[in-house]
Amino acid sequence: MNGPTDTGDRPLARYRDYLRVLARLHLSTRLRVKVDASDVVQHAILHAHANRGQFRGGTEAEWLAWLRAILANTLAGVVREFETAARDLNRERSLEAELELSSTRLERVLATDQSSPSEGAIRGEELLRLATALGRLPDDQRRVVELHHLKGLTVAEVAAEIGRTRPAVVGLLFRGLKRLRELLAETAESAA
């Protein structure tokens, strides 16, 4: 997986959960009523598939950045469609930066510091496993974990966002992280 010609070795379906986590984080509450994150991700994956030959990178990190850029463009299109605002390139660039920041936070949840290409590939695999595990959490737990750990909201901000009390959010975070660790341990055991 080192050359730009081997993108066929990267089945796009593997990245669906990863992109879905990012899409959920960046769809406003108002837009979530109108469009589902899975629909946005499906559109982004179709675009990536159709334009696969345009990928010029070679590493997993470059591939993920390319997919995030496609997702950012797709999300910007959804915002334009439903808010009927004029095209704002600054907002699209800001969305790309926000997606990058969320992806970085997702990587921090893994808390690994790898520097070699093989370790980077392992981190990419772990990132995909984490995204899949997040998708398996109950919705309320997944939402608070994503908002707090991936979007960087405080517990009070999460409580206001989801309409729950702070103690309820703390409980959901505790149970969500505990279950997330269990799911990651299960997938690590099954992979071994």
TrEMBL record:
InterPro entries: RNA_pol_sigma-70_dom, RNA_pol_sigma-70_Plancto, RNA_pol_sigma70_r4_t2, RNA_pol_sigma_r2, RNA_pol_sigma_r3/r4-like, WH-like_DNA-bd_sf
Species assigned in the record: Frigoriglobus tundricola
Gene Ontology terms describing biological process: DNA-templated transcription initiation
The organism's taxonomic lineage, starting at the top: Bacteria, Pseudomonadati, Planctomycetota, Planctomycetia, Gemmatales
Pfam (any one): Sigma70_r4_2
Residue ranges annotated for the RNA polymerase sigma factor 70 region 4 type domain, each copy included: 128-180
Keyword annotations of the record: DNA-binding, Sigma factor, Transcription, Transcription regulation
Superkingdom of origin organism: Bacteria
Annotated coiled-coil segments of the chain: none
CDD domains: Sigma70_r4
GO molecular function: DNA binding; sigma factor activity
Gene3D superfamilies in UniProt: 1.10.1740.10, Winged helix-like DNA-binding domain superfamily/Winged helix DNA-binding domain
Statement: the UniProt record of this protein carries the keyword Cytoplasm: no
Protein name, as recorded: RNA polymerase sigma factor 70 region 4 type 2 domain-containing protein
